[in-house]
Design a protein that fits this description.
Length: about 270
């Protein structure tokens, strides 16, 4: 299968699109899709289908490459990541689309190393960063343990005032929405936000990376729509935090490993 399957869970959840007119490039890959913002040279959003019953273990590799379907000038390539403290952060996590027949899994593994699926992320590791990585691991482990299917949507918050580094606006925040169907008919969703503002400021000024710069929050799905301009109405209606449209709850900061599981626990 090529691209993202909007009916993968049973309830239809299409890949996220801008709520208002905006130039984008729709790029299908094996089991996932990238919606590229050519002006910002980064993904506006990504969407991946995960089949926990068919996951395949493959070696990581590190063959990052440009996508020849779009001009190099519309992508953030290797020059932005050279000789600094920025990592090429996978948006669709490498292991998530790696399932199915061997050839299919290998194709997904290779596709995940396309620069269109990356965004600059500060390389420092502290507790909150580990919580974000723990969240990604939890999502995959959940699918694998219960042999179930998940859709995961991820992207940077592309703000107008993002600091520019080597010609590219560096996102200060990243978001993730996990969606699943408890019964094959209804939908559930949970949203998260990573804030790396302090670390980005340090790197873009070519200075020392400050400590304690990552913060991870569980937020209302609707807030992701407000931050990104994406239409998240279907997912917001399925938010495990409930309908917070009139009296939204404040973001809940995740500070301990057990906090990470709270979203998926509400099934």
């Amino acid at each position: 299968m090529t691209g993202f399957d909007g009916s993968f869970l049973g309830p239809v959840v299409g890949p996220l699109r801008p709520a208002s007119e905006r130039e984008t490039r729709e790029l299908p890959y094996t089991h996932f899709e990238v919606l590229l913002d050519p002006e910002r040279r980064l993904a506006l959003s990504t969407a991946v289908n995960i089949d926990g019953a068919q996951l395949v273990e493959l070696g990581r590799g590190d063959d990052w490459h440009l996508d020849d379907r779009v001009p190099a000038s519309e992508q953030t390539g290797p020059e932005v990541y050279a000789r600094n403290d920025f990592d090429r952060g996978h948006l669709v996590r490498r292991r998530d689309p790696v399932w199915g027949e061997p050839a299919e899994a290998r194709a997904a593994n290779t596709d995940s190393f396309c620069y269109t699926n990356a965004a600059p992320q500060a390389s420092g590791f502290n507790q909150s960063k580990e919580l974000w990585l723990g969240l990604e691991t939890l999502v995959l482990d959940y699918a694998q343990t219960w042999r179930t299917r998940l859709d995961v949507f991820t992207g940077p918050v592309l703000a107008d005032d993002d600091p520019v580094y080597r010609g590219v606006g560096i996102p200060r925040r990243f978001w993730k929405i996990a969606a699943w169907s408890p019964d094959g008919e209804t939908l559930a969703a949970s949203a998260y936000l990573l804030d790396q503002s302090d670390l980005v400021e340090g790197i873009t000024r070519e200075g020392l990376v400050p400590l304690g710069g990552f913060r991870t929050f569980q937020v209302a799905v609707s807030q992701i729509g407000e931050l990104t301009g994406l239409d998240v109405d279907v997912l917001a209606a399925a938010d495990v935090r409930g309908n917070e449209g009139l009296r939204p709850s404040p973001p809940r900061e995740l500070t301990a490993p057990q906090d990470v599981a709270a979203g998926l626990a509400a099934r």
